[in-house]
Design a protein that fits this description.
Aminopeptidase; eight-stranded mixed β-sheet; 6 helices; 8 strands; 33% helix
């Protein structure tokens, strides 16, 4: 269940993560393009971390990996994986604390999760991001995802209609990119 990269440890959420989790999920700049309410009170963070820690990464549905920086064991964000029934397709999402952005941690974390998923037989990874979130779109393209389409959704938590860009990464493309 734990995934290691050169600088990161992707693991199950722990009770000690609650303060850092609440802090980055409460940051308006981090939450700007996400579909969660903010700020995130400690009580809500405690409840979510408890729920996340009980989820099974092998089962269909969302499983959020806590992103821990190995150098100081601090929580710097999360990568969530939504496995579809049958295990052939999964959706990914990611969040990084503002002060840790721009260091390549999101790319490294998503790459680590993708490596694990494709090794387990995943056929297609997909991701969506707000069309205004150009940094996330560039990150996905950098990792090999290709733009599929744009569509509109109503984001209940923000009470607004939002345009999303959808991206996909088939296993065949991942294998070619990994072999380069």
């Amino acid at each position: 269940m734990q995934i290691e990269t050169s600088r990161l440890r992707l693991r199950r959420f722990l009770p000690c993560d609650i303060p850092d989790f609440a802090a980055y999920r409460s940051d308006g700049e981090v939450a700007r393009y996400q579909n969660w309410d903010f700020p995130l009170p400690l009580a809500s963070a405690r409840r979510l971390v408890g729920e996340y820690s009980r989820r099974d990464p092998a089962r269909p549905g969302w499983f959020p990996y806590a992103i821990e920086l190995k150098e100081d064991a601090s929580l710097i964000g999360d990568v969530a994986v939504n496995r579809h029934p049958g295990g052939l397709k999964a959706e990914l999402g990611f969040s990084i604390a503002r002060e840790r952005q721009g260091c390549g941690y999101a790319s490294e974390a998503v790459r680590g999760v993708l490596g694990e998923l494709f090794t387990q037989g995943l056929r297609t990874a997909v991701a969506e991001c707000d069309v205004r979130n150009t940094r996330s779109a560039r990150l996905l393209e950098h990792l090999g995802f290709t733009y599929v389409r744009q569509h509109s959704v109503f984001v209940r938590e923000k009470r607004e209609r939002t345009q999303l860009s959808e991206f996909a990464l088939p296993a065949e493309r991942w294998a070619v990119l990994k072999g380069q």
